[in-house]
Write a structure and sequence with these properties.
Elements lengths: L11 H34 L3 H47 L1 H14 L4 H25 L9 H24 L3 H26 L4 H28 L3
């Protein structure tokens, strides 16, 4: 008989932790691209360090607050939906226990169990904790691990801020003659890292993800720099 491998992730919380980590990587990626596009665009119009710092900080704060607010609203809506689904399931279990037992049996049978085994499993799960069984099998919800909007908001805020700091520091710290190239190179290197990380977390091939990420960031910086240069040339 094969022995179970202890390094495999069988816990239900592992998928949720990976989702949070993936969201953090994508949040950092957004901070890198949006702030890099902003400061490179301003650099096309002026080389004034104060103007670059002001624009970068404004973009960082606006972006991080927007990400946090959006994530809070989104996850709050998801949490409300999960609570409503659990409340409905609780009511159905109270009013129609036999129908719910038959429903759970059918769900387990649809997953490949024989009718007899599915019925026995459904009865055992119902005796142990009927709501938890239906929440997990029918709804895909863990009643003890509902999504937390505040955690999501803070995670998005911090991830975006960390990502945005890279292009901001790269554009204001080096000498004027070097700052643009240092920013471009450091941003593209960071996009390689975030593209590779998001692909690995999603169990996908990293090459294509990295290429898409780098091309998107390079295009964003190229367009904003061209726009900034044009506006600077006409004196706007």
């Amino acid at each position: 008989m094969m022995e179970p491998t202890h390094d495999e992730a069988h816990e239900g919380g592992m998928g949720q932790r990976l989702n949070w980590l993936r969201a953090a990587v994508l949040g950092a990626n957004d901070g890198i691209v949006s702030t890099a596009g902003l400061v490179v665009g301003v650099a096309g119009a002026t080389d004034d360090r104060a103007a670059l710092l002001t624009a970068g900080l404004a973009g960082l704060l606006a972006g991080s607050m927007s990400m946090a607010a959006g994530e809070y609203v989104s996850v709050s809506t998801q949490r409300d939906s999960e609570k409503a689904a659990l409340a409905m399931e609780r009511r159905e279990l109270r009013e129609s226990p036999e129908a719910e037992l038959e429903e759970l049996t059918g769900l387990l049978e649809a997953r490949g169990l024989s009718r007899e085994v599915a019925r026995e499993a459904a009865e055992q799960l119902t005796r142990r904790d009927a709501l938890r069984a239906h929440a997990r099998v029918e709804l895909g919800i863990d009643p003890d691990e509902l999504t937390n909007p505040w955690h999501a908001a803070w995670a998005s805020f911090l991830a975006f801020t960390v990502g945005a700091l890279l292009p901001l520091l790269a554009i204001v710290l080096p000498p004027a003659d070097w700052r643009l190239w240092i920013t471009v190179v450091s941003v593209l290197a960071a996009l390689v890292l975030t593209g590779w990380s998001s692909a690995r977390l999603g169990a996908a091939a990293p090459g294509r993800a990295v290429l898409r990420n780098v091309m998107g960031g390079a295009l964003a910086m190229g367009i904003t720099y061209a726009a900034g240069t044009l506006l600077g040339a006409v004196g706007v």
